[in-house]
Design a protein that fits this description.
The structure holds two protein chains of two kinds. Chain A has helices spanning about 1-25, 35-60, 65-90, 95-115, 115-135, 135-145, 150-170, 190-205, 210-230, 235-250, 255-275, 275-285, 295-310, 330-340, 340-365, 370-395, 410-430, and strands at about 170, 175-180, 185. Chain A is mostly helical. Chain A has one domain (about 1-435). Chain A has a three-stranded antiparallel sheet. In chain B, the strands form six sheets. A six-stranded mixed sheet of chain B has the order 4-3-2-6-14-15, with no helix packed on it. Chain B has a five-stranded antiparallel sheet with strand order 8-7-19-18-17, with helices on both faces. In chain B, strands 1-5 form a two-stranded parallel ribbon. The N and C termini of chain B lie far apart (about 95 Å). The interface between A and B is large, with 64 and 51 residues.
């Protein structure tokens, strides 16, 4: 009986997620939100259905009644979250983005609960608490008119946070740095991603003279260098790419992309020469099979999981995701591909892409340069992080030890991603209300 | 006063005349759009890579002994068959009335090492093609149907390059003696036969297991053809000869030696086999008669560091181009070795250790104008309805020897058969080339009997290595065994 249910569920998941993915792209087309109302309603239903089926299987396989409580709490969470946004922010918030956020969280709740109930519970508590804070963020963005002018607050706060970690952080897996807050180990570099984008958006939206680009490079470089010294090269790479493209968009000059590409290549070569863990990752990327006992072990296990799962997946509880190291974080995608299959995994990648495009669409609709750049910067942060995680798990690129936003287990990551989504909602909500940005030279250097 | 940004944006080309404000907005959005396109392309690249991985690489990747998922797959797939090149079933799974499965091996002990076993762990093809056997290419709809009805999928079959009659000939040629025979098609690298004795019965391995492992010195699970390491004996003179040819490219044919049955240098002495006295002999005679005195003499004249370099180029102290398990051959001689070790090593005694697989590879390279084709055991994978799903193609490993070298070595190896220690290989059906060996493996007179070489009938070739343990002489034991295999192979 359980066998049959597992098999049927496997196909149901694939069909449902493919429809969901189709709707998420359909929702991107055109300006008229009402035209897609039916699609958006269906998306919500699909999310609940996948969540229900998956938790039924988790319960059948674990016989743990706590799972039922967790399920009920999560359903409550989704309903409240969706309702609060709808009631408080009316028509202007982005429903496609909210749907994607809930869908990704739902996949996260499912896969983490399948791997470990304790982690699932912990993750859910963090998500619920952070979401409560996030309810207010769009409101703040709407009413706080001086957010675009806090340039140096963002910059100095970010650099201080990174500096603190550099001094007193502890090292895990050779790269990730965190401060233990008791309930979870907080990774400031995750939060600084937000401050950093706000700093760049604020600084670059005022003036794009060569002098200012140089100044921005100095401070962006300071962030990157601290991250490099903290051995957090995945974050350093994200910061670097985001900087280069934000300068490109702010100035409209493609030469900054060229300079970025040249600088990035040079920096990668230096990092390769300087850091043994970079060389290990590259070695594991180029030929994991020759070093399968050591450096290549993670990537090889990840590929075994994805390859064995094939297109249709092994079915929930039919795979061996426990054999993949750091499966709940860096390699969460591999465990999804193993048990839910390649079609599901492709849909997941496309949902991430549609989320990125929704970010961009919201950014482009806003009239102020600051919020355009903020939306773009956060969108790129999200996109690069997604590509680094999934690309690393499938050996598209060397694994960099970053997590899949909203899906991976980890308090700091989900905290910062939820805040990012809330900020984007805030941009969406403030789009028509905000007056065109004032061009005020006096604010430039504050 | 205009800001720098406005100046910049006005500079960006945009032919359509428009009011200032909307133009500025459009321009930034255009740049955002460009950036978005770049990132979307990156996503699509990753997606394409993922699809490519699932579609074409995944099958190879998961077929690794490091993948721990075989037991999971075995729950939903009936293990496929292993077949010989002509379709004879070497291993199959019978499903019993109660749904339990039994793996049976219709040829019993004949293919025990090469095909392997599946209980108490796995070995041979059963191990290395485990995932292939547990993967079903029955078609998506049949797979889905089985999935939903709870039926097991039928796993794919692995079709080997092995020839049953040649394998039988090789097995009977060993005649119950410990040893190994491996035969390779030099043109393709296909392994035609691989026999190792003592062997075991894979049908009863489960019940025999405790007995086998409890016995001290029971080596019946060891595949001697790939994992056995032996002193090469006089077969090593092929390497010594080649180095001498390299060091005397124009006048090696002028070499002459007066053999009086032994050679003494300082306090080191080497005797010819059985105390034979070969008299006045050329280089070819020395090789054909396998004269130890003459070869020790040659060996002492060699540049030992060049010799070592050449041997390492011929796969000593290095990995072999072979996918399944094997033991690495070793060659210890170096420029600081003393006279005695040098004299011993050049005639195949000393510390040199070689596997039958390695010697067969060298013979195969010589037979194929110096180019070694990578030896392989599996010709293709087919689904349970015999539809080919993956074809393995011959793969060139490397030009181990130059064309000239292989031609010269072939001439000398032919002399061995024409008038030397391999005379018994003379046949009307094919021309044989080879080198015999009698390898002492301890200080007493106990020795292994070896042969490495190949035969050619104009349309096909077969390279071979025969090792028979604790048998007196290569010429009397290993050579007839090789002949039995050649006769069978060329009679088809």
């Amino acid at each position: 009986m359980a066998e049959l249910l597992t098999s049927m569920a496997k196909y149901a998941f694939i069909i449902l997620i493919v429809f969901y993915t189709y709707f998420s792209f359909a929702a991107l087309r055109g300006k008229n939100q009402n035209g897609h109302r039916a699609a958006l309603e269906l998306q919500g239903m699909i999310m609940f259905l996948i969540h229900l089926i998956a938790y039924a299987l988790i319960f059948i396989n674990t016989k743990d009644t706590n799972v039922l409580m967790l399920y009920a709490a999560q359903v409550g969470y989704f309903i409240i979250t969706k309702s609060v946004f709808r009631i408080c922010y009316g028509k202007k918030f982005s429903r496609p983005l909210l749907n994607n956020m809930c869908m990704l969280l739902s996949i996260s709740f499912i896969i983490i609960a399948r791997l470990s109930y304790d982690k699932a519970l912990k993750q859910f508590v963090i998500v619920a608490a952070v979401t409560f804070i996030c309810f207010f963020i769009p409101l703040f963005i709407k009413i706080l008119k001086n957010l675009p002018y806090l340039t140096w607050v963002y910059c100095i706060a970010g650099i201080i946070m990174l500096g603190v970690v550099l001094v007193m952080g502890r090292i895990t897996y050779g790269a990730k740095i965190s401060i233990n807050l008791g309930f979870f180990a907080f990774q400031p570099s995750e939060f600084v991603k937000i401050l950093y984008v706000l700093f760049l958006a604020s600084f670059l939206s005022k003036s794009q003279s060569f002098k200012r680009i140089v100044i921005s490079a100095v401070f962006a470089g300071l962030h990157v260098i601290i991250l490099v010294f903290s051995s957090d090269l995945g974050s350093a790479l994200i910061f670097f790419i985001v900087y280069v493209f934000m300068v490109y968009v702010a100035t409209g000059q493609a030469r900054w992309l060229g300079a970025g590409a040249a600088g990035g290549t040079l920096a990668s070569l230096i990092a390769y020469k300087l850091f043994s863990h970079v060389r290990i990752r590259v070695l594991a990327y180029r030929d994991p099979w020759s070093v399968i006992d050591n450096e290549g072990y993670q990537v090889a296990q990840s590929l075994f999981a994805i390859g064995t799962g094939s297109w249709l997946g092994m079915g929930m509880y039919k795979g061996l995701p426990e054999s993949i190291p750091v499966v709940t974080q860096d390699f969460i995608f591999s465990s999804i591909a193993e048990e839910f299959g390649g079609f599901f995994a492709i849909s997941l990648i496309l949902i991430c892409l549609s989320t990125f495009l929704t970010f961009i669409k919201i950014a482009m609709a806003h009239q102020s340069m600051f919020y355009k750049l903020t939306g773009l910067g956060m969108g790129m942060t999200y996109a690069v992080q997604t590509v680094l995680t999934i690309g690393g798990a499938i050996k598209f690129i060397p694994s960099t030890g970053v997590t899949l936003p909203l899906v991976s287990y980890g308090g700091s990551s989900v905290l910062c991603t939820l805040i990012t989504f809330a900020i984007i909602q805030g941009i969406s909500v403030s789009t028509t209300d905000t007056l065109p940005e004032k061009e005020d030279d006096d604010d430039e250097d504050r | 006063m205009r800001t720098d940004r406005e100046i910049e944006i006005i500079d960006t080309p945009d032919e359509r005349p428009r009011p200032k404000k909307p133009k500025k907005k459009k321009s930034t959005n255009r740049l955002i759009l460009n950036t978005t396109i770049a990132f979307t392309v990156l996503f699509m690249g990753m997606l394409a890579y993922f699809v490519h991985f699932e579609y074409s690489d995944a099958d190879e990747v998961i077929n690794s002994t490091y993948n721990k998922r075989q037991d999971i797959l075995a729950q939903s797939v009936i293990r496929g068959d292993i077949k010989a090149a002509n379709g004879e079933v070497l291993a199959t799974t019978n499903v019993n009335g109660d749904g339990s499965e039994t793996r049976t091996y219709p040829y019993g002990r004949l293919f025990s090492h090469v095909v392997g076993y599946t209980s108490n762990g796995k070995s041979g093809i059963e191990l290395f093609y485990n995932f292939k056997l547990l993967t079903s290419n029955s078609g998506l709809f049949e797979l889905m149907y089985n999935d939903l009805t709870g039926n097991k999928d039928k796993g794919d079959n692995v079709v080997t390059t092995l020839n049953v009659s040649v394998q039988q000939a090789a097995s009977s040629a060993l005649g119950g003696n410990d040893g190994a025979i491996i035969a390779i098609d030099p043109d393709t690298g296909k392994i035609i036969a691989m026999v190792s004795q003592p062997d075991f019965d894979p049908n009863s391995i489960e019940s025999d297991w405790d007995y086998i492992v409890s016995q001290d010195g029971n080596t019946s699970l060891l595949n001697r053809a790939t994992n056995g390491l032996y002193p090469p004996g006089s077969t090593f003179k092929v390497f010594t000869l080649l180095e001498y040819m390299h060091e005397h490219p124009s006048d090696y044919a002028n070499y002459m030696f007066e053999c009086n049955g032994s050679l003494t240098v300082g306090d080191s002495s080497i005797k010819c086999y059985n105390g034979n006295v070969h008299g006045t002999e050329s280089l070819m005679d020395s090789f054909a008669y396998s004269c130890n005195s003459s070869f020790s003499n040659i060996g002492l004249s060699l540049n030992l560091s060049n010799f070592r370099k050449m041997c390492e180029g011929l796969l000593f102290n290095s990995k072999l181009p072979y996918d399944m398990t094997y033991s690495k051959s070793s060659f210890e001689l170096n420029s600081s070795s003393d006279t005695f070790e040098t004299m011993q090593t050049v005639i195949g005694q000393g510390k040199t250790q070689v596997s039958p697989l390695h010697l067969a590879m060298i013979a195969s390279a010589i037979a194929n104008d110096g180019t070694l084709m990578k030896p392989y055991l599996v010709d293709h994978i087919e689904n349970y309805e015999n539809k080919n799903v993956k074809q393995y193609k011959p793969e060139k490993y490397k030009e181990l020897l130059s064309k000239e070298d292989s031609k010269h070595l072939s001439e000398y190896m032919k002399a061995v058969v024409d008038y030397g220690t391999g005379k018994r290989l003379a046949s009307d059906a094919y021309t044989a080339y080879g080198k015999t060996g009698t390898a002492q493996f301890d200080s007493s007179e106990n020795s292994h009997s070896l042969f490495m070489g190949y035969a050619d009938n104009g349309s096909k070739k077969l390279a071979i290595c025969v090792v028979m343990e604790e048998m007196p002489a290569g010429s009397t034991w290993a050579v007839p065994a090789a002949k039995t295999v050649f006769d069978t192979y060329f009679s088809h």
